[in-house]
Each structure stands twice: as C-alpha cells, then as structure tokens.
Amino acid sequence: xxxxxxxxxxxxxxxxxxxxxxxxxxxxxxxxxxxxxxxxxxxxxxxxxxxxxxxxxxxxxxxxxxxxxxxxxxxxxxxxxxxxxxxxxxxxxxxxxxxxxxxxxxxxxxxxxxxxxxxxxxxxxxxxxxxxxxxxxxxxxxxxxxxxxxxxxxxxxxxxxxxxxxxxxxxxx
Amino acid sequence: xxxxxxxxxxxxxxxxxxxxxxxxxxxxxxxxxxxxxxxxxxxxxxxxxxxxxxxxxxxxxxxxxxxxxxxxxxxxxxxxxxxxxxxxxxxxxxxxxxxxxxxxxxxxxxxxxxxxxxxxxxxxxxxxxxxxxxxxxxxxxxxxxxxxxxxxxxxxxxxxxxxxxxxxxxxxxxxxxxxxxxxxxxxxxxxxxxxxxxxxxxxxxxxxxxxxxxxxxxxxxxxxxxxxxxxxxxxxxxxxxxxxxxxxxxxxxxxxxxxxxxxxxxxxxxxxxxxxxxxxxxxxxxxxxxxxxxxxxxxxxxxxxxxxxxxxxxxxxxxxxxxxxxxxxxxxxxxxxxxxxxxxxxxxxxxxxxxxxxxxxxxxxxxxxxxxxxxxxxxxxxxxxxxxxxxxxxxxxxxxxxxxxxxxxxxxxxxxxxxxxxxxxxxxxxxxxx
Lengths: 173, 434
Ligand code: SF4
What we know:
The complex is a heterodimer.
Chain A: E1 6-11, H1 18-21, E2 56-61, H2 73-79, E3 85-88, H3 93-101, E4 105-108, H4 111-121, E5 127-131, E6 136-140, E7 145-149, H5 154-162, H6 165-172
Parallel strand pairs in A: 1-2, 2-3, 3-4
Antiparallel strand pairs in A: 1-5, 5-6, 6-7
Chain B: H1 5-13, E1 14-16, E2 22-26, E3 29-33, H2 37-46, E4 58-61, H3 71-87, E5 92-93, H4 101-107, E6 116-119, E7 133-136, H5 139-148, E8 150-154, E9 157-164, H6 173-184, E10 192-197, H7 199-203, H8 206-214, E11 223-226, H9 230-240, H10 247-255, E12 267-272, E13 279-281, E14 289-291, E15 302-305, H11 307-310, H12 313-323, E16 333-336, H13 341-349, H14 352-359, E17 361-363, E18 384-387, E19 402-405, H15 408-417, H16 423-433
Parallel strand pairs in B: 3-4, 3-6, 4-5, 6-7, 9-10, 9-12, 10-11, 15-16, 15-18, 16-17, 18-19
Antiparallel strand pairs in B: 1-2, 2-8, 13-14
Helix pairs in contact in B: 2-3, 2-5, 6-8, 9-10, 12-14, 12-15
Bound molecules: iron/sulfur cluster.
C-alpha cells in the first residue's frame, strides 16, 4: 500500500483540470518518471509557483478536481512527485477512478469541512496523517491539531489494498 | 420501476457486483489510440501478460499526432503498430486510413445500440449517440479492458434532458450542447449519464447527435446517450443488413434499449431551444458560454475547423456554405482538418475543399493535431483561436493561447471577418455588396 501521510499543498480553486495538472504536450512521454518536472505547469492560480510543490505529499483543493481529459498521466504526475492523496470537495469521475486504479486515494470531504481546513491551515505548514482503517485524517500545524472523518467505498478501499485495479482484476476475473 | 437505457445496458452486461453499487460489466468494444494505449501495452509486456481478451473487439487508431512529428510520437505510433500486428488486431488504422477516433469508429460501423465501449479518451461519450454506453477511462481501466474485456462502474444514474422547440437558422447541435453545459455547469453531470431526448433530438442526424453526446464530458457526464431510432438504423444499415430481415426488424430490436416511461432519473430537465442564438465560450471553462452576438471586439489569430466534435461532413458543409465565394481575413490563419479520410474524400467530391482553399484555408490530413495543441496549428502565447473543438482550457491549443469554442458556421464567419461574428452578419454584408 502507498504512503498517504505528509505535508499539504493547498490549491484554493475549483475545477482544476487535467490539462493544468499535466499539459497535453507531455503526453508523448511513455514513462511515468519523465512527467515529474511538469506537474501543475499550466495551473491558473494566483501566487502559485512550482517551488510550492517541494516536499508536499498531499493536495487539498476545492470542487471538481481533475475534470477534462481522461489522461492517467495526471495521477502519474502526482505519483512521481510523491503525492498519493488528493482531498477535495469532489472529483471528476475519470480522475477519481484513475487515482484508485493506481492504488492512490481521492478523498471527498463536505464543503464545510474543506472550508474549515482552508481557513484554519492555509498559509501554515500543515501535515496530514491518514488512518485508513479508522477513516480518520489527523491534520496538524504548529498550533492546531484536528481530526476529520472520511470514508471511501469498500471497492475503492480494496483497490488501494490490492495496489490498484490491475492486480485486483487479474486476481478476480 | 422501469429502467433507463443505461441501466438496461448495464443489466445485460453484468459480470460482478464486488461492492455497493459497483458493477463490473463486460465490454463489446475497447477502442485504443496512440496517446493513452502505449503505456498500457508496455505495462502488460512488463507484467508478462501481453495478451488481449479478443482481437476482434479491439479497434485501434493512430490519430492524435499523425503522421508522427518527432521521435517521441514516432515511438508511440510504433508501439501501437507493433502491438496491433502481434495481437492480430485487424481493425487498426494507420497513416493513410486514419482519422479522429470518435469520427472514424462510428463511420466504420463499430458502434451499435446496446453496446458497452471504453476508450482511454474522455470524449468516448460521443458513441452514446447510437444508444450505447460509451465512457472514457484512464490507462489502467483501459489495460484491464484490453486484458480481460471488463470494466467497473457505478450503476448508472441518469439526467434526462428533453430538448424541445425548433432550431433557428444558423443555430446547430453545437449551440445546443454549449447552452446545456452553460446551464448545468462543468460539474453538473458528474457520475451521471446524460440522456438527450425530445423532438429536437428525434429530428437530428447521427452526426448532430454525436456532436451533442461528444460534449457530455464537458459537463462531467460519464456518457451521453440518445435512443436508437429509425435514423440510427438508416445510418448503420450497410453494416447490419445481414443481421436483420428488414429495417423495421432492426428498429424493433434496437427499441428494446430505450428507457422505460417510468424509469427513475436523478434529474429531469426540459431545455427549450426556440430562442437559442449562436453560442460560444469566453473563458477557460466550457461552461462559460455566451451569445456570439456582440463579441465583434474579439479579434482572432487562427480559425480551426475539425475535431471529434465538428470535423464531420455536415460540419464542413455548414462552414463551406458561409465561406463560398469569400476570402478569409488577411489577419487570420484558417485551418481545416477533415476528421476522417472518408470525410475528406466526400468534401473533395462536393467541391467543399475548393471552397475552403479558395477562401485561404490550409487543409490538413485527418488528425486531432491542433485540438489538443500537439501539432498542425499550435498557438503562440497571447494568440486567440476560434475553434470548433470541445475544450477551451488554459493552454489547450498551445501555452498562453486562448480558445473560443463555437459552431463551424460561426468559425467560418469569424475567419472572413477576422473577429468573432455570426453568419447572419456576413450574409448581410454580402447582400449589401450586391
Ligand atoms: S479531436 Fe480533440 S477532443 Fe477529439 S479525440 Fe482528438 S484530441 Fe480529443
């Protein structure tokens, strides 16, 4: 199983699409690792710089993350940058499926919760510990510490445990 | 309780129900192109399970960048080509026979009512126009599809959109779908099938229905779908005539898929298009939709007519009707990419290619090319493109470029003016000149 703990990158915008996560011109790469330098290269977000990615393992964002193209290069670009967990209000279907298919996690929280986390932590160095068995996220900064419940479906959980859909399907079908 | 068309298709293809509302369904076709498939092929080779579930159900094309533009795209094409040969995939379309996947595969008769189809491409929803469940997936789903012929989905929920009224002159299927996306938003149909029904859809040709279903994904939809009817039968007849004794017979068989009148929908909408005007997008999201009228201040650098949304013969006819005996503005470049070789040949036969070239358009081979900023018309930073494609994302057609989505008729009118305008205005000017 992959690692779902670490420092948080806050992306305070809705509808971040897969062209922004990894532009189409890099889709000619045939290895995942080649995507590493280009993650979020075309992101339209004020004050964001690619430097912000350094050392981050988790993305926290708003609604409809990963809309647009079906490219699995989007989760791969996250994965090769050490980001295995994205937390958002909700996701585009294909992106979310791609995340779990890769054994990664796309976790949905309510708008209120997302608002609260942005308000409390955005701008501070923040880490998240993920307790999958109990469905808890432990969110910490130097002065605050909160616990948030989350759930992923049984099926998605089994994909994460199996290390992705290929392993799961190869065993079961 | 009755069922929707998507639910009927799921129930007839169900293999497993591993948890909750997840259904693993078997697939009637797996479509492949050279951008998302090679990684899956390499992974299968690496795992030592380099097989396909059924070579006859896999259809493959090189379409996104073709002919190859550099060593990397040449390698992607080669991986596809070698794999198709090795696996005995007969329906493989390479340089000379290739065209944009979602235009080519329907034209070859590969899509039938009641089919389940996946492809590593988000606009796979296009094929729902035939009454199929067709969904874009990522490379892992594609890989499992290739290997096992199955895919997992949530049991489908559906938004029913009844389109009523009569389209005015110079208003087309593209304007209808843009207006729907503008209304429900880029997230409005996430995890749902968009079922398009009503008198306007009933009157639409298959090509128009494909334009409609093509953009379902821009509202987040899993698939677009239209009911199979007489128009579907007529379109498919040359491919199915040996399977049915008559068209009536085929129609009766296809009708079994249509949603029941008491089927449950998550949302039901009525969309009256009687007063709909030519539409376009203005920002970087496909739901930022406004009327074209009044946008004359927007100057453009490039006009692009093509893609799986609007690169078919009816689209070329629509644009050529505006362009006939006209020249494009000296301030713009016009690029036409007929979506498939058959579209190209038909356009030649009808004299449409002459009209485009006489007006000053560059006509490229069939390919996705410029639509995703890969080749054949990439924008420079700060440039503006009037485009008949389906995505206006930041950087989509070239870093720093701006894309306005619109119908072929508006794109053609814009190419003549050099700024965004409607075909009516071009007509007016024409009659004044006389
Ligand atoms: S024409 Fe554009 S949208 Fe359609 S399949 Fe090709 S790249 Fe994708």
